[in-house]
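TODO from last week: model Pimeloyl-ACP methyl ester carboxylesterase.
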Amino acid sequence: MSAVDTSTRTTPTPATAPRTSTAGATRRRLAARARLAYVRGRLRVLGVVAPRRAGAEAFTLWCTLPGGTGRRKDVRPHAGELVELAAPRGGRVVAESWGSGPVVYLVHGWGGWRGQLGAFVAPLVDAGYRVVAFDAPGHGDSDPSVLGPRRGTLVEVMEALEVVGAHFGDSAAVVAHSMGTTAASKVLSAGPLRTERLVLIAPNHDFAEILADFDRMLRLSPRVQGLLRGALEDFVGHALSDFDLAPLGADGQLPQTLVVHDRRDKETPFAVGHRVAESWPTATLVATDGLGHQRILRDEATIDLIVRDIAARPSTLRPSSLSPSTLSPSA
């Protein structure tokens, strides 16, 4: 691993919110706490009288997509060319493309959608690439997950990328965010899609850590925890540890990879990206500061760095048209 640091060491200035906004935020927090208390109580009772039902309800909660306006932002420069593809478990996967040239795939994270990565479109098209973004089942404009509306699974994100990759072909690069980094890395390691370059933005925790946090949040009993883990592994057909990022690229078989992570990311700590980059001999770590988990996808300097890094690599798909990257080692 090598490391570079592109962070601008400035602390964002907090805006003074109107009192009405503060009151609304307070009401939402109180409502969320009440809902969580209800769910905890229900699962505690079911864990005693009907543990299998408790495990099934915990599984449904695990697969429920998160809300939040950050995940629904649309920063596409304009509408692209739409195509609808068949998802392996039924329904449509919606993909959108812009430009012409070697393909670059954009892979959204858990609860996100293709428009969330739209700020990459114009710079990549200007650099001579065809940009392809898609919505996994249950996300964006695609049909619901096999588990129903407002649900999703990692394997369906992976399957959607495979379907889109089969339609558009191998790529010059894959740019993935958050949980999408695991989906992309698993698909690339399994071999149905090939790429020359991989970019992991704010990669996610190992699943043992995510599951432990989930168990603590819901205060699940040990028995219900075991039932939940069993249900998850039955659904994906693998041990959860098979989806951990750090081991996936540890053998050096994945392509040259740029790991971009913000030091103040509150959803996936910077240490996660650092651990992934330490484990992958093909990885370079880039640190930003103050962009968090979502705003990093819209930051012009970060996007420029990623596009230049993709374009600077020798390509078997077409000669690079940009000058070498200006990345410099961090202290």
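Done. The radius of gyration is 20 Å.
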